[in-house]
Structures are given as structure tokens and as C-alpha cells.
Amino acid sequence: MQDNLAIGILCVLGGGIAAQWVAWRFRLPAIVLLFTLGLIYGPGLGLLHPAAAIGQYFHPLISIAVAFIVFEGGLALDLRQWRTSGEGVLRLTAVALPINWVLGTLAAHFVGHLHWGTSWLFGAIIVVTGPTVVLPLLRHTKLRPRVAAFLRWEAIVNDPVGAILATFVMEFLLLQPSHTAGVSLAAVEIWPHLLFSTMFAIGCGIFPALLVKFLSIRDLLPEILRIPIILTLAMSMASVCNLVMEATGLMAATVFGMALANLHVVGISELRRIKESLGVIVVSCLFVILTADLHREVLERLSLPILALTFTVLFVVRPLGIFLSTIRSDLSWQERLFVGWIAPRGIVAAAVAGVAGLQLGETGDPSAALITPAVFAVIATTMLLHGFSLRPLARYLHLTLSDEPALAIMGANAWSTNLAVTVHQQGIPVMLVDTYSGALEKAARQGVPTLKAELLSEEGLESLEERPADYLIAATPDAIYNGLVCARLAPDFGRQRVFQVSPGLARLDLYRGVSRESRGKVLGEPTWNFSMIDSLFDRGWRFQSHVMTDPAQENEFPPPNTLLFMIIRKGVAIWIFSAEDEIQSEPGEGDMVILLQPPSPPAASSPAPAPAALPQG
């Protein structure tokens, strides 16, 4: 028993996280790797049989895990983004869903040869584009904010709605054999239950959010219990709603997350970070478990009609549904084409299909056994095709931001402006940020993108999301403010990618100085404080770029009396020099280095400080 448990944990958790890391390192769709891993563990090698091992608690646990994921997605749904994105979001969530349902049903019946009842259920299941698939893809692709908002809102909102729709159809199909009145009796019995369950789920989402807000503003929610209480409420409300009607727990969890985000409860940013980390673990485990639970008999039921149905869904149903739902909208043809193609299905579709196949099989419907292979064929195909084509298609349609590593410099002063201009002139994406528009004018006149914003404000963070950067240099004269900004943005950028001008030698003491958790990495040497760099600039020092053309130059580089600030390898990374780096990098052939150099010839009366040694790799 213990051996089986250890093997299961190693395969699911260890393999899932390893797949996530490989996907991050080599820029691959993580979902595709997880799906493949599950197929190997389950139908391939027969190492895992999750449903048999867990027993009757398998589907309830899956339901709670999915509720956790949609709750995390709900935290990202700010109504201000809805207004900013225009009517496109409303059309994708309210108009496209019923159209795709009808078109999917027709395709299932006439192409896949499923009975009408099973066809309506298939159409309801495939309307969802799960956040478990879409959100990881968005994290690895720098889409324009509007297009990313379209896909994010559609995935998160349609997921619970589609699950409820599929549950309603399934209850309708299960009701018919036991009553002679058929459709009329089903309408009388199911519709009130559906309306009540939906309203109950919405209430279960809004009420706990108001309770959390109430407790927070009255200091009745201790920090140590804030996140545990919120997560417990999310899971508890989802479980209660599922008792009333299956799948309504997803709606309650989504509404709860949205309510917390839009009520602006203090401390949600910490919850969001923790949930993102937990979400990666949950998504990894769920995909491996659900895929491993497929039986070989299911795969053996794949046939030409099912394959034809899959490609009809991809190339006809989805594009046609998006085209019809966005007629006379403000979406461009590029956005309509992109959204019409990108629609990967995820965990909700897989979970609903697994339950539906079992329950409908008891009714004697001969096509019920085909619902699971048909849905999983759509899931596998969309994950493969959409996962690998999202970035190339978005780039071809000019819907992405630059793939070059981007640099943000906070604090517009004389030397930081010169640094931004130097980097910009070499074709590297750079943005200068300051709270005073006058300080940004010089850089703007030379074509450098600028942002007037307070990066510690919600508006500033949202503005930064619209023009995402990969690295940050905090270069204001206020060392404490620099540290605050670096500490705030470190979870988003990565703690190895936020830098600040040295706050001074005394403040860098690992025990008595400013905690590393409360500041960024030191830019350059500890002696390079703001005053020193500013004084050098006043004495004529300027930033210069240099491309390494001969590897032999490395032994003579950098020139004497210069300060090395960064090494840029286009399309790969930016290495910003910091004395706190335990492993340094050195420039290679074709790399660009940014140096702070004295005027030529150097003034004899202005001795230069000892330059930093070239980082050794």
C-alpha cells in the first residue's frame, strides 16, 4: 500500500512539476507534456489507475480541485478589464456560447453519428475553454492585453456556465426514460431547479466575499488566518453548491473570486500569489490523473466519424461560432481569426465527460459510450494544435508584444535617461517609468517608450501589465522607495530580475542591513550608489554600447576605467551586473555590453573609481 502511494505521488506530483519546469525552460506548452505524461502512466504503462485507487471519492475530489482553479481565475477578473476590453468579452461569454452549443450539437449528430440526446450533451461539454489550459498558455506568450483579456474572460466565465449547461442536459436525458410526459415534465421539473441552483450558487459566491470584507475592515480577520479562511470558504461553498446541483460549485467559486477581486479586499495580492503557486501544483496533478484514468477501451473506440467530428469542431464549429457572435463588433479581423482558432479544452470538459459516459451508459443509449472518447479526442487535439500554434499565429497576426527580453527602468533622471536611450538605440525593448511627466520628456523625444505611473498603485501595476517587462532597475535617489518597488514586483518579475541602485554599504549587511526580501539585487558594486553614478555623469561619463565580435577580446574587456552595467544577448536574456550574483556571466561573440565610460580623453583631474571586474562565468 505504501509502495503504491509512493509511486503515485512520484508519478503525479514529481512528474507533473518536472513537466512544468521542462515546459518553462524550453518554452513548450506545459499542458501538452502533462497530457502525454498521463497517457504514458495510465493507458501506456498501466502504472496509475486513479479512479480505482481512490474509489467513490474520485469525482468529488476532482470537482473540488477544479473549483480551486476557477476560484484562482476569478481573482483575475476585474470588471475594469471588462470595460477596457469592450464588447468583445460580452460577446464571447454570452453570445458565442449558445451558438457554439447548437453548432457542436449538429456536428455531433450529422458528422459523429451520435444520437440527438448525446449530441446535445457533447455540444454542451465542448463550449468550455478551460482556464487550466488557457491561462498557462497566456503566461508563456506576450499577447496584447485586449486579446489576452478575451481569452481569459471566456475561459473563466464559460467554464462553470458550460459545466452547468452539460449537467442540465444530462439531468434532462436521465429524466426522460422514467416519465411518459417527456419534454413537458422535464421542463416543469428541471427549469425551476436549475434557476434556484444558479441563484443559490451566485449567492454563495457573493455572501462570503462580503463577509471577508466586513471582517477585514473591522480588524476581525487575523493575518495568519486570512488566507486559510478564504480558501476554506471557497472550497466549502463549492461543496455545498454541488450538493444542490452538480457543477454549480464551479460557478460559486468563480463568483467568490470575482467578488473578492472587485471588492478590493486588502491582502488579496498575497492570496493571489499563493494560489498561483498552488494552482500550478493542482493543474499538474489533475491533468496527469485524469489522463491516466483513461482506459485503453476508450482509446480503442476512436473511429473515423469521431476524428471527423474532432476536426469539424476545430475548423468549422468554433470559427463559425466566433464569426457569427462577433458580427458588427469592435473586434478586428485579426482578433476574430485568432480567437476563432484558439480554444483548447481542459479539465472541466474531461471531468464532465467521464461522469456523463458512466451515467448515460445506464440509460441504454448505444452512443453514450462514445461521449468520452469524442470529448477526449477534442481535448487532445486542441491542446496539441492550439498549444503549439498560439504563439506563431499571434506573432503572424501582430497580436503579440516583442519577444525580445524587455527592460523597465523606474526613475527618470539624467543618467537613467541616458541608459534607456542607449539601450533603446540598440533595438532592445526598454521603458522609462516615473511619476513626473516632465522627467520623461527628454527620453520621449528620443523615441523611448515612457510610462507616467506610480508602480506601487493598482493603476501602475495594471499599466505595467499592458506593456510587460522582464527586468527592472529601480534608479530613484530614494533607496527605501527603490526597495519597496523591487519587493512588490519581485514575485512577478522573479527575484533575480529586479535590481536597485545600491542603498549604501551599511544597508547591505546581511544581518543588520535591509533584508534581501525587502529590496532588489544591488546594481553593480555596493559602492555604486546613486550619488556616485550621478556625479560621474555630471563629469562627462556616458553609457556606450559595444558588440563583442571577437572572443579574444574578452581577455581585454572591459577597457580600464569603465563600469560594466549589463550584457544583452538578443532574443535570449539580459544579464545585469550585480556583485550579489554568485555565478557571473561573461559576454560571448555577438553579445552586446552596456558600459559607463569617461569622456575621451579622460580628464586628469577626475580620477575614476576602480571599475568592477568583468563578471567571470
Automatic annotation (TrEMBL):
<keyword id="KW-0050">Antiport</keyword>
<feature type="compositionally biased region" description="Pro residues">
    <location>
        <begin position="598"/>
        <end position="617"/>
    </location>
</feature>
<feature type="transmembrane region" description="Helical">
    <location>
        <begin position="302"/>
        <end position="325"/>
    </location>
</feature>
<feature type="transmembrane region" description="Helical">
    <location>
        <begin position="150"/>
        <end position="170"/>
    </location>
</feature>
<keyword id="KW-1003">Cell membrane</keyword>
<keyword id="KW-0812">Transmembrane</keyword>
<dbReference type="InterPro" id="IPR038770">
    <property type="entry name" value="Na+/solute_symporter_sf"/>
</dbReference>
<keyword id="KW-0813">Transport</keyword>
<dbReference type="Pfam" id="PF00999">
    <property type="entry name" value="Na_H_Exchanger"/>
</dbReference>
<feature type="region of interest" description="Disordered">
    <location>
        <begin position="591"/>
        <end position="617"/>
    </location>
</feature>
<feature type="transmembrane region" description="Helical">
    <location>
        <begin position="337"/>
        <end position="356"/>
    </location>
</feature>
<keyword id="KW-1133">Transmembrane helix</keyword>
<feature type="transmembrane region" description="Helical">
    <location>
        <begin position="278"/>
        <end position="296"/>
    </location>
</feature>
<feature type="transmembrane region" description="Helical">
    <location>
        <begin position="368"/>
        <end position="388"/>
    </location>
</feature>
<keyword id="KW-0406">Ion transport</keyword>
<dbReference type="Pfam" id="PF02254">
    <property type="entry name" value="TrkA_N"/>
</dbReference>
<feature type="transmembrane region" description="Helical">
    <location>
        <begin position="117"/>
        <end position="138"/>
    </location>
</feature>
<feature type="domain" description="RCK N-terminal">
    <location>
        <begin position="408"/>
        <end position="489"/>
    </location>
</feature>
<feature type="transmembrane region" description="Helical">
    <location>
        <begin position="89"/>
        <end position="111"/>
    </location>
</feature>
<dbReference type="InterPro" id="IPR036291">
    <property type="entry name" value="NAD(P)-bd_dom_sf"/>
</dbReference>
<feature type="transmembrane region" description="Helical">
    <location>
        <begin position="190"/>
        <end position="212"/>
    </location>
</feature>
<protein>
    <submittedName>
        <fullName>Sodium:proton antiporter</fullName>
    </submittedName>
</protein>
<feature type="transmembrane region" description="Helical">
    <location>
        <begin position="31"/>
        <end position="51"/>
    </location>
</feature>
<keyword id="KW-0472">Membrane</keyword>
<feature type="transmembrane region" description="Helical">
    <location>
        <begin position="57"/>
        <end position="77"/>
    </location>
</feature>
<feature type="transmembrane region" description="Helical">
    <location>
        <begin position="224"/>
        <end position="245"/>
    </location>
</feature>
<dbReference type="InterPro" id="IPR003148">
    <property type="entry name" value="RCK_N"/>
</dbReference>
<dbReference type="InterPro" id="IPR006153">
    <property type="entry name" value="Cation/H_exchanger_TM"/>
</dbReference>
<feature type="transmembrane region" description="Helical">
    <location>
        <begin position="251"/>
        <end position="271"/>
    </location>
</feature>
<feature type="transmembrane region" description="Helical">
    <location>
        <begin position="6"/>
        <end position="24"/>
    </location>
</feature>
<feature type="domain" description="Cation/H+ exchanger transmembrane">
    <location>
        <begin position="22"/>
        <end position="394"/>
    </location>
</feature>
